[in-house]
Design brief:
With 195 residues, the chain is an alpha+beta fold. Helix content is 34%, strand content 31%. The protein has four helices and ten strands; from the N terminus they run βββαβαβββββαβα. The protein has helices spanning 35-48, 65-83, 133-146, 160-179, and strands at 4-10, 14-21, 28-31, 51-58, 92-99, 102-109, 115-119, 126-127, 130-131, 149-156. The longest helix has 20 residues, at 160-179.
Length: 195
């Protein structure tokens, strides 16, 4: 079974194609107008052992908001499609990742109930040209479209780049655990009989 999906989204604000493979090798091909997000998505794919291909053009002459938001939407949709019926998955994932001064934790439940709990405060409002508020925007759209319960806790840190980097690495590792197949799981891991 190949757990993979491709999504295309074209609006008046963005034009995105995205391919996502769960059981990959951690490779990424990223061509977006948002360099810092490219860096974060590369870390996410590498640490989750996912294959990720993103090609995105957006109205960055206004700002990065629409592009970042729509990539989150596409990634969430691709994840949900690639998971299929979720039979045999572990469902839950948890990862702590340190990055020098920063410590981030991400906890995931692939429950079909979208929720984002986001506990992160940064010392600066931007990393280069990237507004830190867009981290929340990306993660919320990812959780909403993937229909997952996503808790992001930034325990501490003082370098904004390190703090966000720790979050994306932890996101990859927690998701890798949640989507991994457990031979002990018969059907879906829920007493309801469905996720």
């Amino acid at each position: 079974m190949t757990r993979t999906a491709s999504i295309s989204r074209k609006t008046n604000e963005t034009d995105i194609t995205l391919a996502f493979t769960i059981d990959g090798e951690g490779s990424s091909q990223l061509q977006t107008d948002v360099p810092f997000l490219n860096h974060m998505l590369d870390l996410f794919a590498r640490h989750g052992k996912f294959d990720l291909d993103v090609r995105a053009k957006g109205d960055i002459e206004i700002d990065y908001h629409h592009t970042v938001e729509d990539i989150g939407i596409c990634l969430g949709q691709a994840l949900r499609e690639a998971l299929g019926d979720k039979k045999g998955i572990r469902r839950y994932g948890n990862a702590f990742v340190p990055m020098d001064d920063a410590l981030a934790q991400v906890v995931i439940d692939l429950s079909n109930r979208p929720h984002l709990e986001y506990r992160a405060v940064y010392p600066s409002a931007q990393v280069g040209q990237f507004p830190t508020e867009l981290v929340h925007e990306f993660l919320w759209k990812l959780a909403l479209e993937a229909r997952m319960n996503l808790h992001v806790i930034l325990h501490y840190g003082h370098n904004t780049h390190h703090m966000i980097e720790a979050i994306f690495k932890a996101l990859g590792r927690a998701l890798d655990e949640a989507v991994s197949l457990d031979p002990r799981v018969k059907g879906v891991p829920s007493t309801k009989g469905m996720l």
